[in-house]
Every structure is written in C-alpha cells, then in structure tokens.
Specification:
This protein has 356 residues and is an alpha/beta fold. The protein has two domains: 199 residues, 3-Layer(aba) Sandwich (Rossmann fold); 145 residues, Helicase, Ruva Protein, domain 3 (Orthogonal Bundle). The strands form four sheets. It has a six-stranded mixed beta sheet with strand order 1-3-6-9-2-10. α7 crosses α9 and α12 crosses α13. The N terminus and C terminus are likely disordered.
Length: 356
C-alpha cells in the first residue's frame, strides 16, 4: 500500500481556533505558507476560511504543487487539529485494495473467528482524511465516497453493517479542463460546490515566490542537518527563475537540498544546481552567441534535458518516461547511465512542500 499516516500532526496550542484567536491563526498560516504572489495572499485567506468549517473541500493542482501541504495546514488550524491526519494517494493502489484500505473489511482468521479490519475512515475518527484521487476510479467507489461525504456513513468491504463516521474529508485532484468534467474524479457528481474548491497554481505561474520559497527551504534544510546557512547567488537565482518547474514546489525543494549538500559555505552558485537546471540554454535561432557553440556538447545537453523532462513527467518511473519519449526502456536506461542521471531525484511527492 502507498500511503502515509500522520497522527496528531500539530499540537501547538497557539494554533487553536477560538473566539478572539483569529489573529494568531493568521500569523501561523503566514509563517507556513511562504510567498509574495497574489495567489499566496489569496490562499492564506482561503486556508483560514476553510479551517473554520467542517465541510469537504477539493484542492486542485498539479503533482508537487502542494495539495497535501495545504490539506495539512487546514487540518492543523481547524477544530479537528488534535485528531489524526491521514493522507492517501489513490492512483498507485489497486482499487479493491483501495476500498479495503479506506473502509476496512470483515475478515476471518485461521481459526475461523470473524473480526473487523479497520480502514482509514475509522482510524481518522475525530480528525481529517486527505484523499488524492484520480479520474480513473470506478463509479462504484465514487458512490461510496459520495455517501461518506454526504451522510458520514460507510460500510466495510464484505459487510452489510452501516457504520457512522466522524471525520473531515479533503479531496485532492489534478486540474480538470472544463470540457473534460464528465471524466473528472472530482465534479458535480460528488456535490462539491465551486465555493469549496481551492485551485493551487503551478510554480511556473507564480515565479515571484521562487526566491522566498528557496530561502525558506534552504534555512529549513541547514537547520535540520546542523549545517552553516547557505546563501543563493544571483546567478543561481536567475537559473531557478528560468526553469519551468514541471515538478512544482516538490521539485524545487529537492533541487535546493541537492545544491545545499553539494555547496560549501557560504553560498550556492549555479554550478552546484542540478545539471538540467544549471545548463538550461537561453539562445534560439534568432540569438545564437557570436562566439558560436560546441555542437556535440549542445546536442548532449539537449538529449539530457529531454530525458530529464520525461523522467520528471513520469515521476521517475522509467517505463512511463520511455513511453513518453517513444523509446525502448533499455534505450532509455542506456541514456540514463551515459549522462549519469540520478533517477531518484525525480521521484518527488506532495509531502515535499512542507516549510515548517
């Protein structure tokens, strides 16, 4: 099973929502949700508003954009903050196993005794369950989730007994085109109103947040690892701004942690950044440098960049990356070895955006 469970995620009494305590909540959210863009300003207000009620909400965003981070932040600012927080990503789990994971099952042990196997819906009692779901889940599972959302009721797999639930549900979804709403995992069929959705912008659409996020991630990493603080050079910052960040904030955090491990105090220069970011070229058919280029080196960098882009898109899964490139897996593996690409650096997750 692919899920992460976090119990009693935050127990800081300063975050309790109570009459007259709204200012402390706002300050806590501001310290956690780092950035200077208009979207960050809007998101801080939205998080405080959603923390003040118990209705289900949908967080829409690309992989690595920070959906689980926002879900955790809403939980830790809500009245359920002393309860557990569970997170589950549905797409890598086979559906029958997913239903058992969520709703539990009635089982029989080797001696023939019947016992109940608890699912996350029961384990999250008094807290929050975050489900990052995909468009491919079946209609039957959607119906079960809808009933849970509407009535706070569920049945274990292979059981007819209706159980009461006591949890807040937050749903995560990839952005759904308006023309594709019938196929979306999150749509009007789950009775989620537009006012209970929060769209999380990809990092490429709010690049003014790159610098404050980078400094926050570096400070967090150095503090956690007991290292001397690192500073970003202007050249390194320029390279970060020129990159499109298909892996969003999760990829940015991994990039900076990689650079912080490579760099010596006091600063991080462009040479310590991952090669596919540091070597991004700024010329095209209209702006070839007067000094010319090294053809073989440029072709090499181009190939490496394309391979890295496919690996990012595929989350580090070589079989998927090979399909995106129209290559055999063995051919892609040869290129990965030739260019010394660290595949694990592309296996980013939502948990990556956690600037505590």
């Amino acid at each position: 099973m692919s899920f992460e469970a976090v119990r009693n995620y935050s127990t800081n009494d300063n975050v309790l929502i109570a009459p007259g305590n709204e200012f402390k909540i706002e300050q806590w959210i501001k310290s956690r949700l780092v950035g200077v863009s208009h979207w960050v300003t809007h998101a801080r207000v939205a998080v405080a508003a959603h923390a003040g009620h118990d209705a289900p909400i949908v967080l829409e965003g690309e992989m690595g954009a920070g959906k689980e981070f926002i879900a955790r932040l809403i939980h830790e600012c809500s009245l359920r903050r002393r309860g557990p927080f569970f997170s589950v990503t549905c797409w890598p789990v086979i559906e029958p196993s997913l239903e058992t994971l969520l709703f539990g099952a009635g089982s029989t042990n080797a001696s023939g005794q019947i016992y109940d196997e608890k699912g996350l819906v029961e384990m999250a009692a008094g807290g929050t369950l975050y489900l990052d779901i995909c468009a491919s889940i079946s209609d039957s599972l959607k119906i079960r989730l809808l009933h849970l959302i509407q009535h706070q009721e569920f049945r274990r797999s292979k059981s007819d007994l209706v159980e009461k639930a006591n949890l807040r549900i937050i749903l995560g979804s990839a952005p759904q085109p308006a023309t594709d709403s019938k196929r979306g995992a999150i749509n009007s069929s789950l009775f989620i109103s537009a006012s209970d959705k929060l769209a999380i912008l990809p990092l490429r659409e709010r690049k003014m947040d790159i610098e404050p996020l980078s400094l926050s991630f570096l400070n967090e990493f150095c503090r956690r690892e007991g290292k001397e603080e690192r500073e970003l050079s202007q050249e390194a910052l320029h390279a970060l701004h020129n990159y499109d960040w298909p892996g969003n904030i999760g990829e940015l955090k991994k990039c900076l942690e990689f650079a912080a491990r490579q760099a010596r105090p006091p600063g991080i220069n462009v040479g310590t950044l991952p090669a596919h970011i540091a070597n991004r070229r700024g010329f095209n058919e209209y702006s070839l440098p007067h000094s010319g280029i090294n053809w073989q080196e440029e072709v090499r960098q181009f190939e490496k960049t394309i391979v890295c882009a496919a690996l990012r898109k595929a989350g580090g899964v070589q079989r998927r990356a090979a399909k995106l490139l129209g290559l055999k897996v063995s051919t892609l593996n040869t290129m990965i070895k030739r260019y010394g690409i660290d595949v694990t650096s592309f296996q980013f997750t939502e948990q990556g955006y956690d600037n505590t």
